[in-house]
Amino acid sequence: MQFTAKDIAFMLNGTVEGDPLVEANHLAKIEEGGNGSLSFLANPKYEQYLYTTNASVVIVNNSLQLTSPVKATLIRVENAYSSFTLLLEQYNTIKLNKSGVEEPHFIHKSAKIGATPYIGAFSYIGQDVTMGDNCKIYPGCYIADNVKLGNNVTLFPGVKVYFDCIIGDNVVIHSGAVIGSDGFGFAPNPDGTYTKVAQIGNVVIEDDVEIGANTTIDRATMGSTYVRKGVKIDNLVQIAHNVDIGQNTVIAAQAGIAGSTKLGENVMLGGQVGVVGHITIARGTQVQAQSGVSRKITEEGKRWAGSPAISYTADMRSNVVVSRLPELEKRVNELEKIIKELKDRDVH
Amino acid sequence: MQFTAKDIAFMLNGTVEGDPLVEANHLAKIEEGGNGSLSFLANPKYEQYLYTTNASVVIVNNSLQLTSPVKATLIRVENAYSSFTLLLEQYNTIKLNKSGVEEPHFIHKSAKIGATPYIGAFSYIGQDVTMGDNCKIYPGCYIADNVKLGNNVTLFPGVKVYFDCIIGDNVVIHSGAVIGSDGFGFAPNPDGTYTKVAQIGNVVIEDDVEIGANTTIDRATMGSTYVRKGVKIDNLVQIAHNVDIGQNTVIAAQAGIAGSTKLGENVMLGGQVGVVGHITIARGTQVQAQSGVSRKITEEGKRWAGSPAISYTADMRSNVVVSRLPELEKRVNELEKIIKELKDRDVH
Amino acid sequence: MQFTAKDIAFMLNGTVEGDPLVEANHLAKIEEGGNGSLSFLANPKYEQYLYTTNASVVIVNNSLQLTSPVKATLIRVENAYSSFTLLLEQYNTIKLNKSGVEEPHFIHKSAKIGATPYIGAFSYIGQDVTMGDNCKIYPGCYIADNVKLGNNVTLFPGVKVYFDCIIGDNVVIHSGAVIGSDGFGFAPNPDGTYTKVAQIGNVVIEDDVEIGANTTIDRATMGSTYVRKGVKIDNLVQIAHNVDIGQNTVIAAQAGIAGSTKLGENVMLGGQVGVVGHITIARGTQVQAQSGVSRKITEEGKRWAGSPAISYTADMRSNVVVSRLPELEKRVNELEKIIKELKDRDVH
């Protein structure tokens, strides 16, 4: 990728200030930009870097007034931040614009594959799989029998989807994620051993969901584990069987949700949060990192923290006192001593 | 899969009530059952759904007395729950009944493979591997040199087993799990760098073990990391080098056990539990989710909670007071003020 | 591998005591050593086992004075521990000494591969990849377009490296680890949905780094996520976008570091630790297992514990009082009662 300042200005409908033929071949932050890099300045806080940067081209707001000479070629636009975001997306689209079917692969003859797919080498597509248009299946993915994929689905390398699972449109799943593994269901026997409870449900992932690397989502015992429209899940997250995650909920890395729990819409779970099974969490609930939710949450839009989780403000206040606990105990010791003296004196 | 009510009644030794020719092609919960679904009613609590369900066929107890008309065809059996469980297993057996050897694969000529295997495409079976009968190696698995697998082992897609590891009969390992990766052993040097300690042991997984998706079990530095008979491990669990997990122990998702720790039989660890290294945990110990076990547990069959873990009941009691800590501190402030007044008055 | 006591003594520059022709074919701890095993005795605490072991050959210090007869053949050396360590490494080198290029594989014609590689079956090497000498790419690895690998890099089975990432010399990455997946960046919209922020940076892993199984390291939004020289990372760890991990830092299993946080050199994070985003952690900081670091740490070389983390000693002291909290509350109740009595009496 190599563009002149003039080309970029044309794409962004901007105007060039400086050498229009200078070339940029990668994107960089303004404070890190070197020769050949294209950067932007939106936040006035960073204006100082404009006068020292080694970036070749910098996108700036039309309204910016220079206070010193600038080495880089400037491209002036209405909104430097949104113009740059546009370029970011453009850049990524080019990088991820794989197409074609690589060899070797395993595609069952009964599988139905939509238009313009990318199917990477060593990918496995099982019996009766259906796949919409513009799907990108990176190398080493596994799509089991009877799985359904919508349009514009991207599975990064090594994603595994067990049989019968359903994935909507525009879903992105990162490397190593496992969709549809057995729920953790075992019935105890009198002799201390366990008998497996067959897990015959599936996982349903609705449209516009993104799932992080090495995350695991178990299939339902019966029925479906649901990840609703617009949900965003980070890396190494565990979603147990029969969980139902409401629309536009966001779950940070290493959080875990136990079986049959139902999260409302627009919930936010911080990193390493745990949620017990068989409860419901009201829409808009926010849970701080490392907290443990042990009871249902019925009030919408509140913030929780701690393990077990209590209201965020109560937890903050308690934490402060916890750090002073040894001192508090000493004060109680002292009080008891004084009281004893007072009482003894009283007696005499 | 498509069966008539009559077929199902025959399999379960039950009697048909309603149209014996109605067909079912999938299993569903009674409250979710639609056209073509087969369901069951065991718990009287759910009886209401029997009169409203759209399921085509419902298995019920012989003893059930109807209080309203029912649209579905009923199959009456001695025990509806156990009959349905039987069907679940049957269903799963059919779904998972893969066989044959798919192309391409890599099987070292020295590998010994038992009768009726399934070996999925892109699977790798190394030098001197031995594998019992009826093993199912799903696509993209990696079995390193000198690994031994028993009979009826199932490795779901993308399981990796490092060299020299030993896996018993009837073991099930889910996608992305890693068995036998190097233990985390590094010796510090005076200059702040670390030198790796070679990890030359292996992992031994005994019979009837199930291991969840993306779980990691490290090989021993020397000797073996043991997962004993009947152990059940959930997803994303970390088992460090030289750990020994006792028979029929159950470990929930995202728990972690540090090096050389020995768990007794029938231990239960909740989700996200951490256990420090080099300790022993008595048989029958139960640890609540998110707890951290920092010392050995010698008394059998007790329940623990908190980080660091204390007895479950003590932790419950402490948690209650923690949430009232700011108030407790205020009460101590108040007491000190009163005492000061009393003492001052005393002096005068 | 099969050596006589005489052979081993020759390798270690030691002297044989007993049958020089006895053979050993594997390594074992002295307390577990059986027929054919080679063991060592360095710690006097274990001397008792020397007289009962079934190991065929035992390496001991020159200085050791026997107090009973010994069945095994002894090899006397200056330092039994370091001699044994030498053998461990030798053993591992032989075990891991794979070479050659296995079929089938996918290597883009533009990829540049150094001398004496091992490339396992089902490995994928993308466009413009460059790879140094003596790299070992185990089966089923994925190396995306434009990735650069140094010399002596080992990627165990199923490692995935996304495009543009850079990996230094002598790096070891264990099975299932994902390098360069998208950072978790989504901008909220007024209607509750999220728009993905393109993640166009990369991951840079410097020399002498080891990364555990199923660990995930996200690419930077822009610029790079850095794992500096000599860092050791355990299994199932999450490193978010734009994190920078200082030289020789050690991170135990299941820890997680949120976006843009910068760890100094020689930091140690215990298992399941969480660190919030956008902070710096001073060099030499040590954080206890399961702790949560919620604020920047500026003082070097201190130890922290708890969630939120406070100084280690303060946390230890607080934990003790937490377990006595119900009792403390009772004592305050009692004090209030007495005070009330005293005041009442005072009034009359």
Describe the structure.
- The structure is a homotrimer of 348-residue chains.
- With 348 residues, chain A is an alpha/beta fold.
- Chain A folds into three domains: 3-95, 3-Layer(aba) Sandwich (Udp-n-acetylmuramoylalanyl-d-glutamate--2,6- Diaminopimelate Ligase, Chain: A, domain 1), CATH 3.40.1390.10; 100-314, 3 Solenoid (UDP N-Acetylglucosamine Acyltransferase, domain 1); 323-347.
- The first copy, chain A, contains five helices and 40 strands.
- In chain A, the strands form six sheets. Chain A has a twelve-stranded mixed β-sheet, covered by helices on one side. A ten-stranded parallel β-sheet of chain A has the order 9-12-15-18-21-26-29-32-35-38, with no helix packed on it.
- The longest helix of chain A is centred in the last third of the chain and has 23 residues, at 325-347.
- The mean pLDDT of chain A is 94.
- Chains in contact: A-B, A-C, B-C.
- Chains A and C meet through helix 3, helix 4 and helix 5 of A and helix 4 and helix 5 of C.
Q: Give the class-level CATH name of the largest domain in chain A.
A: Mainly Beta
Largest interface: chains, residues each: A-C, 63 and 63 residues
The best one-word shape of chain A is flat
Q: What's the CATH topology name of the largest domain in chain A?
A: UDP N-Acetylglucosamine Acyltransferase, domain 1
Count of beta strands of chain A: 40
Which strand order spans the largest sheet of chain A, edge to edge or round the barrel? Answer: 8-11-14-17-20-25-28-31-34-37-39-40
- What is the CATH homology-level superfamily of the largest domain in chain A? Hexapeptide repeat proteins
In whole angstroms, how far apart are the ends of chain A? 95 Å
Number of helices of chain A: 5
Average pLDDT rating of chain A: 94
How large a portion of the residues of chain A is in β-strands, by DSSP E? 25-35%
Question: Poorly predicted ranges of chain A (pLDDT <50, ≥5 residues)?
Answer: none
User: What is the assembly state of the chains in this entry?
Assistant: homotrimer
